[in-house]
# Entry
Amino acid sequence: MKDNKFLTLGIETSCDETAISVVADGREVLSNIISSQIDIFKNYGGVVPEIASRHHLENINGVLDAALKEADVTMDDIDLIGVTMGPGLVGALLMGVSTAKAVAYASGKPIVGVHHLNGHISANYIQHPELEPPFMALITSGGHTEIVQVDDYDKLTVLGGTRDDAVGECYDKVARVLGLGYPGGPKIDRIAKEGNPEAVHFKRVFLEKDSLDFSFSGLKTAVLNYLNSEKQAGREINRADVAASFQQAVMDVIVKKAMDACEIRNEKKLVLAGGVAANSKLRAMLDEECAKRKIALYYPAPVLCTDNGAMIACAAYYKYMKQGPDGLDMDAYPFLEL
Ligand code: KG4
Ligand code: ZN
# Structure
């Protein structure tokens, strides 16, 4: 406690960001330190799990010190330690979980393990202080594409998800073949603004009628096939047109499914979460569709969309208030159901 506020330390290491934050009373960010490994993985075109774990190990103590310092607190002031326990890269997760356990043991503070996707959703509680469940959540990130009904802070039901690639993964792969670099999402987002979304028709995959599941692997292959055949025919590729056409095909599907989910459940609040929620096309299309249907749309600032410790601290706070602490025998889980 400091100034009568309940302080949560949030630790996130599930992929390539070593991120630690101090959050007061669940929603007020006092510090949010993010050490990204993007520059390292640019050279590889994607995340190399073993290298990610090593960098977490090298960075995590410094990030912890910086998070406490920026919040102007010490471990004595912290009331709760929250950490991402899954899903994610197991070696990377273990760095966060081991650190959290060590700090909890040494300080005698309680610990709570958080589901990474609940963390992404919780970024919205920080951004929108008035937001409370129930609502519909659309999670689109590098590892996940899911539609989740959120009935309470700890009551989440998955209504649909991807059957193959996650949408961010698809963005990253298409960007790589277009020679745009890693991570591809923001690059496609930017270059697509100069392209014609109707230049190339890529098939939209909606799956069975009423299904809220997704499939993006066919679209990814279609883009690769298109690029190969254009190359073989000796035609020059307009990267902006391909990026815009790919993005339109993705977003047509995602926006329709999100609207279907709200309609089926008669939900008037839609919350976006995950790295791809930073996408300007997704936001613009949903702004329009939600306005037509009188659905209130919520999304976090870009820095809270991608992986960060603040969202984990927020999710940990609410889990702790509802369910109490976890034991020090908690573990890291590469696959974890919501
Ligand atoms: O949530 P996140 O940081 O990590 C996971 O939990 O996966 O999401 C990272 C993903 C990457 O695939 C990245 O390319 C994508 O989010 N991304 C975007 C944008 N910004 C980040 N995708 C599309 N448009 C963006 N503006
Ligand atoms: Zn994430």
